[in-house]
Backbone:
């Protein structure tokens, strides 16, 4: 008989600690705060936190203060458990998350069953919004957008830059073999075929690897001019270093987010080595701010709150999505799930009006149809926006 | 000193032992506890509490299933997520084809059993950590294969179920049905675990875990029983995996074929009490809420803090509760077994019938040679044992006596030569494995005692008794009777590890006697038994012989050799140097030489 | 042909990396007979120490081994004394595995707590310089690893064979009870062995850190491979482990190139399982160490 008492007490303790003031609305912040995905999970959550700070500073939502309740989605079972805790114990009105696609898919099924809106701000797998869920909305661009933009960049920039027809380029696609890499690379391959590109190699590998030299040799052997890699940090570093050391210099390397967007990657690889490496990812920070109003303010707020510059664009994109969603909820009356859904469906923000550059308007399946990735390039040790032209702060260099 | 043991003496002895009725009090307590576990979450009626209980039930169930292999059989599998994953994938793949997971779980269970047997069979040769490492390697292989075969498994992106609700799909909007199913699965797992533990299979598994060779000598087909255990465990694991997949509604290779999950499953059992029926449940009841609380309190504080605390707590728990929670409470409630209370009781004097005449050859050994590399351990050893005869096998240390024993009980393959045993129907057979020898009625003891240390005296003897009696109750009766004959009646409930060396020697004999063998191979059973008991032991042997059992005894206690043996064979440097009546043999020059007069002088005196 | 040579050399270099990481584990696994799941975390710990010493004090990464190896020696001794030794007499020898799993979890999260999940970059200090032999390229740091791992194996071998302590260690490995009877303090030998094993990992760390980005999870990338290597080489045999590491490195490299990077783990573990099942005493079994299969 001890256990249930203990549980009740804990439940009470959690409720007490979280509901000090009245007139507040609670939202769940479900991210992997521990385990392997902790770094970018936390980085993503920071964007949400800043959005909440701004909303609260401006008087809250419908006059009520926003309180974030964190949930740690360290694995799928945990994601479900935490989603349930947030919904039933904390009585949150909606859940924001999740960075990891797998956790998002698992947790949003729970939210759907409970009829609680689930807002995805950062996970990229197709399945997040392809399931026809009623309460699921995703503000960020996803795997398909990424694959499309990578291929567009090859066709529109890389090929002309090299003075070649796109069809003459040899494309090598390599990807870490978890959900992230496989789904992005699948879209890369699909779009590449559509545009008549020549894929000479497509290979997955485990992200937890200590050696990529055989893959580098395979690419070298296949004579790939353009390498598309979708990767986390460790494997991005390994590939760039080992390719460099093997004397393998493809005309262009295009990273698909992950490790390619992070400053420590560039520092680890060496700024000379990573020079001119391309990257397609969420909007990062060195962009033409005319296309991204509010970006500078966000970076300032971030620095103030956390004492360092943002570590990746994940925070920015979470911030943009969360802020737009909360503002729309602020225009509604009440926090009933259906009210929230109605409010959110009404969002119509044009491109170029948010800090991430892309606009927001949800399609039938809850996916933000205006979401778009951005093309970037490492130049002088910095990741600068180079594509599309409207957001570019620098010219896209093709070293040849 | 001869006294006849009447039936009534035995009866009084029996009543002192544990009563054989069902422990109603325990059953009541258990039922109440389990019902409480089910009712509490339903009463609280909260989603999160329900989730915690479902998680407890699932992991307790998985851990209970694991415990059949990891605990009873002592094979520390860290690859059990393979079966969990097979169940999960089978359920979801079939559901996507429109087949109910209630069917899917049996498909998953069937596939798991096949896989389990296929990967365990070659791995059983591996001991301890090597078995664990092999299971980890298999798990990694399965994970990568699940990533690779995308058409079937959906690859890295995983598989989802369509949200179809209702009992036939095992998916519910309401929380109670999920709770009921998880609870039901746990009960099934506990039921199977209980059944195995309390039947012959469980005794065999534990015996195999404790001493594989002794179990083989007791006629246990050690590979078969472990394969049955693995198959049962895999099937249960897969079925729970199917349900968990339905509960999660989404699976992917890295979360399903995960080493972390495998370790967790084993950990619950370990912390609760490995090898006990309820240990895994207790472990899950303790750890699941604990890690939830840790996460709740520490999770948001700092990156990695709660993982750090969890790791440290784990180390501390292992350090200070190495026998698990059940072990701890068990010790607390039951007190210490009075293992050191007294010396063993005297061996009961044996009743003697008239001796049947010596019959035909029952064991024929022809030209046995055994060499390890260039070293000849035995050379051209030929001997025959006749029905109802006692053959003494003596010789100085290192003469190869035990090697001969190992070859005529299947534990060592002769380099050349044959061993033939006459079976009950009169035909001569050539058994090969220890199991063959046990099946044909050859029982043996080991010179270096091989008790099943973690089992009680009664259970030790029962392992032998199971050879002829598959029913637990019958085996227990036989075991008790045998224990009393061997003077172990007061120690039935003591763990074998607590016995003195003399006690262990008796236990060794008791176990083999409980097998009711036709041929008995005794390897220095008199060593360590006090003088008075040697006399009684001799009587006991004679009384066994009088029931028609043929005996070969390796013995250094010359008093026993002289009074027991009908014939004596002397082995020296791997060769037979003398054979004949005891009195003749001890006068043989060669024998005296071989012994340097040591034991011989003693015997003559 | 050029490619073949490069794959071959890459495999050997990878083998050297596995070798230097596995040498310490060979001692611990082979002599103390403990499956130390925290082995990879010792490496991780060592790499963070190297990172700190190079970035904060500006010491050359190779020189940090002078400090890091002794520090890890202490860590090893402490682990043996306070975590493994109390469990040596436990009913169930499995239990040590879980203690080391707990230790591993605690250390990974401690690193996360102290250093964050970001990668930490140890300056390569010239160790990343490519060296060309005809068509084949290797890094200076990789050659250093190869050379040091060979010297380490030879040195430890000599230590075990020639010195009094080394002989005592081998005696304990062969027969614990007999060694005890001969007056050897078994617990001290175990502590020493665990310490030396951990110190080897410290030495490895100072060579691995300049070549590979350090993160809290880096140890987990190595630990399974290290176990594969040790078992392959025959329990407790240093030269066997070295040869095993080379074989795994080559298999990994060739499988990666000729079959595909996505299934090379299957090939490596498949070979491991085959050898474990067909020749359980390892490829280069050390006859003196205890067998790990049922008779």
Residues:
């Amino acid at each position: 008989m001890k256990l249930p008492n203990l549980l009740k007490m804990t439940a009470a303790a959690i409720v007490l600690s979280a509901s000090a003031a009245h007139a507040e609305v609670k939202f769940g912040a479900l991210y992997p705060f521990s385990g392997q995905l902790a770094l970018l999970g936390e980085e993503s959550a920071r964007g949400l936190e800043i959005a909440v700070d701004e909303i609260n500073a401006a008087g809250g939502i419908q006059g009520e203060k926003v309180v974030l309740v964190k949930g740690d989605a360290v694995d799928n079972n945990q994601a479900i458990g935490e989603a349930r805790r947030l919904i039933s114990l904390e009585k949150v009105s909606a859940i924001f998350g999740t960075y990891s696609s797998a956790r998002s898919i698992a947790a949003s099924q729970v939210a759907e069953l409970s009829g609680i809106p689930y807002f995805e701000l950062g996970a990229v797998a197709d399945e997040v919004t392809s399931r026809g869920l009623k309460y699921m909305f995703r503000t960020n661009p996803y795997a398909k957008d990424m694959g499309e933009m990578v291929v567009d960049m090859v066709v529109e920039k890389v090929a002309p830059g090299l003075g070649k027809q796109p069809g003459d380029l040899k494309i090598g696609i390599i990807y870490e073999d978890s959900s992230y890499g496989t789904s992005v690379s699948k879209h890369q391959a699909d779009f590449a075929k559509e545009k008549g590109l020549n894929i000479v190699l497509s290979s997955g590998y485990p992200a937890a690897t200590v050696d990529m030299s055989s893959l580098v040799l395979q690419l070298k052997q296949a004579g790939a001019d353009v390498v598309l890699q979708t990767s986390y940090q460790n494997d991005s570093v390994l590939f760039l270093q080992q390719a460099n050391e093997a004397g393998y210099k493809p005309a262009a390397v295009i990273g698909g987010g992950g490790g390619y967007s992070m400053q420590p990657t560039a520092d680890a690889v060496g700024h000379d080595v990573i020079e001119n490496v391309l990257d397609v990812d969420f909007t990062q920070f060195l962009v033409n701010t005319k296309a991204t109003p509010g970006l500078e303010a966000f970076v300032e707020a971030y620095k103030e709150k956390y004492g360092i510059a943002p570590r990746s664009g994940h925070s920015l994109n979470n911030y943009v999505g969360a802020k737009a969603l909360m503002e729309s909820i602020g225009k509604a009356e009440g926090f009933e799930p259906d009210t929230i859904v109605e409010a959110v469906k009404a969002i119509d923000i044009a491109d170029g009006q948010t800090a991430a550059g892309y606009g927001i308007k949800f399609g039938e399946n809850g996916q933000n149809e205006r979401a778009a990735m951005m093309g970037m390039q490492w130049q002088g040790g910095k990741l600068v926006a180079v594509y599309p032209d409207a957001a570019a702060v620098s010219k896209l260099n093709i070293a040849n | 000193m001869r006294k006849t043991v009447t039936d009534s003496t035995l009866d009084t002895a029996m009543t002192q032992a544990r009563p054989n009725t069902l422990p109603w009090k325990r059953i009541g307590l258990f039922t109440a506890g389990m019902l409480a576990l089910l009712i509490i979450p339903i009463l609280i009626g909260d989603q999160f509490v329900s989730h915690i209980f479902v998680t407890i039930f699932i992991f307790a169930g998985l851990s209970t299933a694991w415990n059949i292999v990891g605990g009873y059989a002592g094979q520390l599998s860290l690859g059990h997520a393979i079966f969990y994953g097979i169940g999960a994938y089978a359920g979801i793949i079939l559901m996507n084809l429109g087949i109910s997971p209630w069917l899917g779980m049996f498909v998953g269970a069937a596939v798991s059993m096949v896989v389990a047997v296929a990967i365990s069979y070659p791995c059983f040769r591996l001991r301890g950590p090597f078995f664990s490492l092999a299971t980890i390697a298999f798990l990694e292989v399965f994970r990568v294969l699940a990533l690779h075969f995308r058409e079937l498994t959906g690859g890295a992106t995983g598989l989802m179920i369509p949200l179809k609700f209702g009992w036939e799909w095992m998916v519910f909007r309401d929380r109670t049905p999920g709770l009921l199913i998880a609870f039901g699965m746990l009960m099934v797992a506990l039921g199977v675990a209980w059944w195995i533990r309390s039947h012959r299979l469980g005794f065999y598994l534990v015996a195999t875990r404790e001493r594989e060779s002794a179990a083989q000598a007791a006629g246990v087909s050690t590979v078969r029983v472990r394969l049955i255990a693995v198959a049962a465990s895999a099937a249960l694991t897969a079925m729970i995996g199917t349900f968990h997949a339905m509960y999660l509604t989404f699976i992917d290779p890295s979360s399903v074929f995960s080493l972390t999950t495998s370790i967790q499953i084993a950990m619950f059992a370990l912390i609760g009490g490995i090898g006990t029926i309820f240990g895994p449940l207790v472990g899950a009841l303790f750890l699941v809420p604990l890690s939830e609380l840790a996460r709740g309190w520490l999770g948001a504080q700092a990156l990695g803090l709660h993982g750090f605390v969890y790791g440290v707590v784990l180390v501390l728990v292992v350090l200070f509760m190495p026998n698990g929670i059940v072990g701890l409470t068990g010790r607390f409630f039951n007190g210490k077994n009075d293992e050191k209370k007294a010396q063993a009781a005297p061996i009961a004097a044996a009743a003697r019938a008239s001796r049947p005449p010596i019959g035909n050859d029952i064991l024929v050994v022809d030209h046995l040679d055994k060499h390890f590399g260039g070293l000849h351990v035995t050379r051209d050893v030929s001997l025959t044992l006749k029905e109802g005869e006692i053959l003494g096998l003596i010789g100085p240390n290192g003469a190869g006596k035990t090697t001969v024993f190992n070859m005529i009980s299947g534990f060592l393959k002769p380099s050349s030569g044959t061993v033939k045993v006459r079976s009950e129907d009169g035909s001569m057979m050539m058994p090969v494995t220890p199991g063959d020898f046990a099946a044909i009625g050859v029982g043996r003891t080991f010179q270096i005692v091989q008790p099943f240390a973690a089992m009680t005296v009664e259970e030790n003897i029962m392992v032998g008794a199971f050879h002829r009696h598959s029913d637990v109750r019958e085996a227990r009766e036989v075991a008790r009777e045998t224990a009393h004959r061997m003077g172990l009646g007061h120690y039935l409930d003591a763990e074998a590890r607590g016995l003195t060396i003399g006690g262990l020697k008796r236990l060794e004999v008791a176990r083999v006697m409980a097998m009711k063998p036709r041929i008995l191979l005794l390897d220095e059973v008199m060593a360590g038994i006090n003088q008075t008991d040697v006399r009684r032991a001799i009587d006991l042997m004679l009384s066994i012989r009088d029931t028609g059992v043929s005996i070969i005894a390796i013995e250094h206690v010359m008093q026993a050799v002289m009074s027991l043996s009908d014939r004596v064979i002397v082995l020296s440097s791997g060769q037979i140097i003398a054979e004949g009546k005891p009195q003749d043999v001890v006068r043989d020059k060669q024998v005296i030489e071989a012994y340097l007069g040591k034991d011989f002088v003693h015997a003559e005196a | 042909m050029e490619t073949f040579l490069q794959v071959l050399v890459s495999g050997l270099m990878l083998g050297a990396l596995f070798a230097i990481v596995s040498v310490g584990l060979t001692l611990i696994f082979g002599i103390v007979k403990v499956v130390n799941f925290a082995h990879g975390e010792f490496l991780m710990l060592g790499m963070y120490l190297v990172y700190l010493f190079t970035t904060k004090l500006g010491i050359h990464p190779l020189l940090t081994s002078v400090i890091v190896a002794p520090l890890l020696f202490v860590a090893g001794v402490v682990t043996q004394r306070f975590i493994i030794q109390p469990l040596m007499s436990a009913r169930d020898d499995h239990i040590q595995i879980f203690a080391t799993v707990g230790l591993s979890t605690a250390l990974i999260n401690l690193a996360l707590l102290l250093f964050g999940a970001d990668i930490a970059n140890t300056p390569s200090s010239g160790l990343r310089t490519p060296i060309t032999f005809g068509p084949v390229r290797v890094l200076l740091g990789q050659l250093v690893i190869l050379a040091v791992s060979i010297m380490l194996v030879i040195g430890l071998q000599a230590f075990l064979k020639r010195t009094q302590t080394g002989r005592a260690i081998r005696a304990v490995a062969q027969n614990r009870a007999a060694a005890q009877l001969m007056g050897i303090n078994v617990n001290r030998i175990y502590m020493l062995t665990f310490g030396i094993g951990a110190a080897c990992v410290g030495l490895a760390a100072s060579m691995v850190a300049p070549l590979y980005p350090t993160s809290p999870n880096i140890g987990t990338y190595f630990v399974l491979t290290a176990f594969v290597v040790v078992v392959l080489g025959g329990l407790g045999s240093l030269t066997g482990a070295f040869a095993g590491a080379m074989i795994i490195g080559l298999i990994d490299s060739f499988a990666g190139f000729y079959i595909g990077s996505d299934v090379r783990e299957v090939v490596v573990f498949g070979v491991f399982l085959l050898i474990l099942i067909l020749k359980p005493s390892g490829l280069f079994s050390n006859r003196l160490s205890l067998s790990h299969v049922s008779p």
Notes: Chain C is about 70% helix and 5% strand. Chain C touches chain A through 36 residues (CB under 8 Å).
